[in-house]
């Protein structure tokens, strides 16, 4: 991640492989055969796209954070946690981070 991020080679159905360090490009290249896993991957792609549109940087960091949060939340939901309560908790955390960032 960041300026010391690693290069990724993405196989394409046509032409030469794509070589990139860009998180959005990597996220867009992900397709999973499992329907539900692919839905989660698409959500992460949305995070990368939105981060790119808003900040033009930090897409890989945003993607890693989104994956980590989603993985933990799906595990909690599978163990019986209320998805709405998890969403409320995530939104409270987002609001707290935004408030802290605005202070600086």
Could you describe the 3D structure shown?
This protein is mainly alpha-helical. The protein has one domain (2-103): GROEL, domain 1. Helices cover 65% and strands 6% of the residues. It has helices at residues 23-28, 35-55, 59-78, 83-103; strands at residues 8-10, 18-20. Strands 1-2 form a two-stranded antiparallel ribbon. β1 (8-10) and β2 (18-20) form a beta hairpin. The radius of gyration is 16 Å and the shape is flat. Belongs to the chaperonin (HSP60) family. GO terms for molecular function: ATP binding; ATP-dependent protein folding chaperone. One of its GO terms (biological process) is protein refolding. InterPro entries: Chaperone_TCP-1 (IPR017998), Cpn60/GroEL (IPR001844), Cpn60/GroEL/TCP-1 (IPR002423), GROEL-like_equatorial_sf (IPR027413). This is 60 kDa heat shock protein, mitochondrial.
